């Protein structure tokens, strides 16, 4: 049995040197991990200074620093990705897990972890434009807050006296609006609230102008927000959340007149009324003098016709009432009632006489019965009534004693006697 080889007390390289193999340190010095990582970092960054990559966003995170960290992956591989705060602030859409993007950047090796990553400076959704995606995301967010609800919409006044227009004072929109408004109606005062309607910072200026319009005294009756047509980039400020919230919070009924007929912005959805163009906004806000005059004429004609018909109907009713007996022969009605009253009086008298005769007969019968039972009738037949001194009728002679005074009543008269 072969014995086990004892462990060498020398490093592997020293053992090889002792065994006759060449020493690598003799020709090339050993690198530290940091040095090796730095060389790899240099090679990677030099080889890939600019690269376009497409992949799916996964494990997205955006801490308070504002930097974006996520994994860019496909079916077979993945790579860490980072978008620094400055580049992230210029992106118009939000990154979310599962979103497939096309991005541009450079490769970088992160030395503390020894891992490489792509530092992205541009990104756009794959298959859809970044502005379109940003618009879709913001629309869903604001719709969830109820800023586009139909029950929030308010009607425009029919005859506004003061109209405000938030727009550029040098643009074609205000010229078109004023031209149409002047042609339609001269009774409205139009106040222009100047602001930029394109470029960086325009959204904040428009929102501030809307808030300022709500503070004007005397208050405005209608507020128009708009500009002429342009590309989606030119109109983008009317899709910013600041403008949408300002328009939705306006106490004045608002009209959005942004771009041409085919242009639809989120400002259109938040406003009470959407006009296809600034010219149509003037048609919606300012009444037409010709239409108003025609309407007044029509109403006047209808009013006179209704008045004539009402007078005719009432005249016919008066004529009909005049032909009726109470108005045609008023005294005949009185005579009829007088005759009826006489008939009732005669009937009442007859009824009273009949009642009296009836009660007289009853009274005579009762008097006859009473007379037949009266003690005076008995006395008339020769009887008398004897009463003692107390006026009590004496029915038994034994009750009397000699010397008692008694009274004797006859049919006619009475006398007194003393018992003997």
UniProtKB/TrEMBL annotation:
One GO MF term: exodeoxyribonuclease VII activity
EC class name: hydrolase
OB-fold nucleic acid binding domain span: 31-122
Xref: InterPro entries: Exonuc_VII_L (IPR003753), Exonuc_VII_lsu_C (IPR020579), OB-fold_nuc-bd_dom (IPR025824)
Domain Exonuclease VII large subunit C-terminal residues, every copy: 147-370
Region (Disordered): 1-23
Domain of life: Bacteria
GO-annotated cellular components: cytoplasm; exodeoxyribonuclease VII complex
A Gene Ontology biological process term: DNA catabolic process
Localization per Swiss-Prot or TrEMBL: Cytoplasm
Alphabetically ordered keywords of this record: Cytoplasm, Exonuclease, Hydrolase, Nuclease
Reactions that this protein is recorded to catalyse: Exonucleolytic cleavage in either 5'- to 3'- or 3'- to 5'-direction to yield nucleoside 5'-phosphates
UniProt EC number: 3.1.11.6
Subunit note: Heterooligomer composed of large and small subunits.
Family: Belongs to the XseA family.
Function field: Bidirectionally degrades single-stranded DNA into large acid-insoluble oligonucleotides, which are then degraded further into small acid-soluble oligonucleotides.
Name this protein carries in UniProt: Exodeoxyribonuclease 7 large subunit
Source organism per UniProt: Posidoniimonas polymericola
């Amino acid at each position: 049995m072969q014995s086990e080889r004892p462990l060498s007390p020398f490093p592997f390289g020293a053992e090889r040197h002792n065994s006759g193999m060449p020493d690598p340190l003799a020709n090339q010095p050993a690198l530290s991990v940091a040095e090796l990582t730095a060389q790899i970092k240099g090679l990677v960054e030099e080889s890939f200074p600019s690269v376009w990559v497409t992949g799916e966003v996964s494990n997205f995170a955006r801490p308070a620093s504002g930097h974006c960290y996520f994994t860019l992956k496909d079916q077979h591989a993945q790579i860490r990705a980072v978008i620094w705060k400055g580049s992230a602030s210029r992106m118009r859409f939000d990154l979310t897990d599962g979103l497939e993007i096309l991005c541009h950047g450079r490769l970088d090796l992160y030395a503390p972890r020894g891992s490489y990553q792509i530092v992205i400076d541009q990104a756009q959704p794959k298959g859809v434009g970044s502005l379109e995606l940003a618009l879709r995301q913001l629309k869903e967010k604001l719709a969830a807050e109820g800023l586009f609800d139909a029950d929030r919409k308010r009607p425009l006044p029919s005859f506004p006296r003061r109209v405000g227009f938030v727009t550029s004072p040098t643009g074609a929109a205000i010229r078109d609006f004023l031209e149409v408004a002047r042609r339609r109606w001269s009774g409205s005062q139009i106040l222009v609230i100047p602001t930029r309607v394109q470029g960086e910072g325009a959204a904040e200026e428009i929102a501030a102008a809307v808030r300022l319009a709500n503070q004007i005294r005397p208050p405005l009756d209608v507020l128009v927000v708009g500009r002429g047509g342009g590309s989606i980039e030119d109109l983008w400020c009317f899709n910013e959340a600041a403008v949408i919230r300002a328009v939705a919070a306006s106490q004045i009924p608002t009209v959005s007149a942004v771009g041409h007929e085919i242009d639809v912005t989120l400002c259109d959805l938040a406003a009470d009324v959407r006009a296809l163009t600034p010219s149509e906004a003037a048609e919606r806000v300012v009444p037409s003098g010709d239409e108003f005059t025609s309407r007044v004429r029509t109403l006047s004609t209808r009013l006179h016709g209704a008045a004539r018909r009402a007078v005719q109907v009432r005249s016919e009713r008066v004529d009909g009432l005049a032909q009726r007996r109470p108005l045609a022969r008023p005294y005949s009605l009185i005579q009829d009632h007088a005759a009826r009253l006489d008939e009732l009086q005669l009937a009442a008298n007859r009824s009273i006489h009949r009642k009296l005769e009836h009660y007289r007969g009853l009274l005579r019968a009762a008097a006859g019965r009473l007379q037949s039972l009266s003690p005076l009738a008995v006395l008339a037949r020769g009887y008398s009534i004897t009463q003692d001194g107390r006026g009590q009728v004496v029915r038994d002679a034994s009750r009397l004693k000699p010397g008692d005074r008694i009274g004797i009543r006859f049919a006619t008269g009475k006398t007194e006697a003393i018992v003997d």
